[in-house]
Specification:
With 223 residues, the chain is mostly helical. The chain is 80% helix and 0% strand. The termini are far apart.
């Protein structure tokens, strides 16, 4: 079988005209979803660890519910149902950002909860002995250490998040994969375009994974 692979179409003009725009949105979506997901996930983790049922129960339902549904289904539901509820479209990009923040918060919540629980109780008791409130103890003693302990895992989840941004193709958002797809159609080389997309995703994610491993070793030395 002769696939007739031809890479001559792959030039800087193609990258600048089609791919960079999509890469910019993929990176932007990853950064916003990570920051928003960590912030919301931390709140959910604290709710689950509060010991108060009226806080723990809704947070548990939210986290378990989100973690039980495929991301692409959440993306489609939000994109199709929310405009029907509010009576106007919100756009593929905005829909993707809100969906990713809401979805990733469930995963970051579990990471943060594990990080908080990894802190020795003795340090919590020491903060209480100094007269710190629950909020002060969390802010000054527990959360800084939890973030440091969980940083490699948080970054690993961020890499997975970047890979998942390719799912926004389902609602027509212009991400990096969409850029390669359009380039492949315009140049009549869809196979080469998808192969190039796979190579770029692999290189970026492998490089980021290598950096996370190096960071993990440094944190292990500090411990």
């Amino acid at each position: 079988m002769n696939l007739n692979i031809d890479w001559s179409f792959f030039t800087w003009d193609l990258v600048s005209n089609f791919v960079l725009k999509g890469l910019y949105f993929s990176v932007t979506l990853t950064v916003i979803a990570t920051l928003g997901g960590v912030a919301l996930g931390t709140v959910l983790a604290l709710m689950r660890l509060s010991g108060k049922k009226w806080l723990d129960l809704p947070a548990t339902i939210y986290v378990n519910g989100m973690r039980s549904i495929p991301l692409v289904m959440v993306i489609l539901w939000f994109f199709l149902l929310v405009p029907m509820i509010i009576g106007r479209p919100i756009g593929a990009e905005v829909s993707a950002i809100i969906t990713f923040v809401a979805f990733e918060a469930a995963y970051f919540s579990e990471i943060m909860r594990a990080g908080i629980q990894s802190i020795p109780r003795g340090q919590v008791f020491a903060g209480q002995a100094l007269g710190m409130t629950y909020g002060q103890n969390m802010k000054l003693v527990v959360l800084p250490q939890a973030f440091r302990n969980m940083l490699p895992v948080l970054l690993t989840q961020t890499i997975i998040l970047f890979q998942d941004t390719s799912l926004v193709y389902a609602i027509g958002a212009y991400d990096m994969l969409k850029g390669f797809e359009i380039a492949g159609k315009n140049y009549g080389r869809p196979i080469e375009a998808y192969l190039a997309a796979a190579v770029v995703y692999f290189v970026l994610c492998y490089a980021l994974s290598w950096l996370v491993k190096r960071l993990h070793k440094k944190i292990a030395i500090i411990r």
